[in-house]
Design a protein that fits this description.
The chain is an alpha/beta fold. The protein is built from ten helices and twelve strands. It is 41% helix and 21% strand. The protein starts with a strand and ends in a 25-residue tail after the last helix. Bound molecules: adenosine-5'-triphosphate and fe (ii) ion.
Length: 323
C-alpha cells in the first residue's frame, strides 16, 4: 500500500509518499516566499492551489507510482492558517473521492513528533521548534502533552522578524545561523524562562535595539546563544521531571546546527539519547503527514468527509493517540 500525505498549514505546500512500512519514498515541497514582509494567508493559499497539481504529480513520479496505486490520502487538518488549510483539505477530499480511498486528517504538530520514529526515537521528549510553534512535548496517558511552550511568538517567527528588520529575506533562520558563525562575542540579551515556558518578544526588542551599534555577527551569535539556551533549559527540565531518556528535535528551527549541538550535549550529559530527523523531514513536509496518516490508519482511524473540516486551533493534546 502507498500513502500520499499533503501538507499545507502555512508557507509550504508539500506532498510525500510512504509505503506500507512507513518508508519515505518521495517528499516534494514548494514554499511560498512573500515578495516583502510577512505571510499573507490568502496569498499563501493561492500559492498552494497553484502548485498543488505539480507538487503532487512530482511526488507520485518520484515514488514511481500512479495515483491509482494509492491506498490512503492523509492531510494536515490543523493547526495553521485557515485559507491554506482549506486549500489542502479540499485537494485531499477530492483525491479521496476520486480514487475511492480513505481520508485521514492529521494534526500537524503530532506529525512533526511521529516522524521521529523514523530515526529510532521511541518515547522521547520532543523539542518542537518551528516558525509558529515552540513547545516541549511528551507522551503521557495516551496523549502528547505540552509541558511547556512559548508565551508569545514561536522561536522561528522571532528569528524571521529579527531578520526582516535587518533586511534579510524570509526565512531568516538559516541566514542568522550563518552570520552567527562569524563571531564568538556574547552581547547580553534578556533570558526569559518562566517555569516550563519561554517568551521571545523581550529578547527580540532588545536585539533590535542593538542593530547598527554592534557587529551583526555578534548580535546573531548572541541571539542564538540566548534563545537556544532557553529552549535547552526547558527541554532538560522536562527530561528530569518525566525521567525520559530520549530527546527528539522537530520543526524547522531544529535544522540549526548550534541548537542541535546544545540539545545533544545536554542529552549526553544526562546519559540520554539524542535524535534529529534529516532536514527534509524537519521543515513542513508531506512525508511526515503520510507517515502519521499510516500509523493512525493502522490504529483503526479514518476521517469521514463530514468530519474533515479544518481546525485552525487544533492542539497537540486534542489528539487521542490510539495507534
Ligand atoms: P509550524 O510548524 O509551527 O506550523 P512553520 O510551518 O512555519 O511552523 P517550519 O517549516 O517547521 O515551520 O519551520 C520554518 C521556520 O524554521 C522558519 O521560521 C525558519 O526561519 C526556521 N529555520 C529554518 N532553518 C533554520 C536554521 N538553520 N536555523 C534557524 N531557524 C531555521
Ligand atoms: Fe511545521
Amino acid at each position: 500500500m502507498f500513502v500520499l500525505g499533503l501538507e499545507g498549514t502555512a508557507h509550504t505546500f508539500g506532498a510525500g509518499v510512504v509505503d506500507g512500512e512507513g518508508k519515505v519514498i518521495s517528499n516534494v515541497r514548494d514554499m511560498y516566499r512573500p515578495p516583502s514582509g510577512g505571510i499573507h494567508p490568502r496569498e499563501a493559499a493561492n500559492h498552494h492551489a497553484a502548485v498543488l497539481h505539480t507538487v503532487v504529480g512530482e511526488s507520485l513520479e518520484k515514488a514511481g507510482i500512479a495515483a491509482r496505486d494509492l491506498g490512503l490520502v492523509a492531510f494536515s487538518q490543523g493547526p495553521g492558517l485557515g485559507p491554506c488549510l482549506r486549500s489542502t483539505a479540499t485537494a485531499a477530499r477530492a483525491l479521496s473521492l476520486w480514487l475511492d480511498i480513505p481520508l485521514i486528517g492529521v494534526n500537524h504538530c503530532v506529525a512533526h513528533l511521529e516522524i521521529g520514529k523514523i530515526v529510532g526515537a521511541t518515547d522521547p521528549i520532543l523539542l518542537y521548534a518551528s516558525g509558529a510553534n515552540t513547545q516541549v512535548i511528551a507522551k503521557a496517558k495516551g496523549r502528547y502533552r505540552v509541558f511547556g511552550e512559548t508565551q508569545d511568538i514561536g522561536v522561528g517567527n522571532m528569528l524571521d522578524k529579527f531578520g526582516r528588520m535587518l533586511g534579510m529575506p524570509f526565512p531568516a533562520g538559516p541566514k542568522i545561523e550563518k552570520m552567527a558563525l562569524k563571531s564568538d562575542e556574547y552581547i547580553p540579551l534578556p533570558y526569559s524562562v518562566k517555569g516550563m515556558d519561554v517568551a521571545f518578544s523581550g529578547v527580540l526588542t532588545a536585539a533590535l535595539s542593538k542593530k547598527g551599534k554592534v557587529p551583526l555577527g555578534s548580535l546573531c551569535h548572541s541571539l542564538q546563544e540566548t534563545v537556544f539556551a532557553m529552549l535547552t533549559e526547558v527541554t532538560e527540565r522536562a527530561m528530569a521531571h518525566t525521567e525520559k531518556k530520549e530527546v527528539l528535535l522537530g520543526g524547522g528551527v531544529a535544522m540549526n546546527r548550534r541548537l542541535q549541538q546544545m540539545v545533544r550535549t545536554m542529552a549526553e550529559e544526562r546519559d540520554g539519547d539524542f535524535f534529529v530527523p534529516e532536514g527534509g523531514l524537519l521543515v513542513d513536509n508531506g512525508a511526515m503527514i503520510a507517515f502519521t496518516g499510516l500509523e493512525m490508519y493502522k490504529g483503526g482511524i479514518t476521517t469521514p468527509i463530514k468530519q474533515s473540516q479544518v481546525n485552525q486551533n487544533y492542539r497537540t493534546d486534542d489528539v487521542e493517540v490510539k495507534w
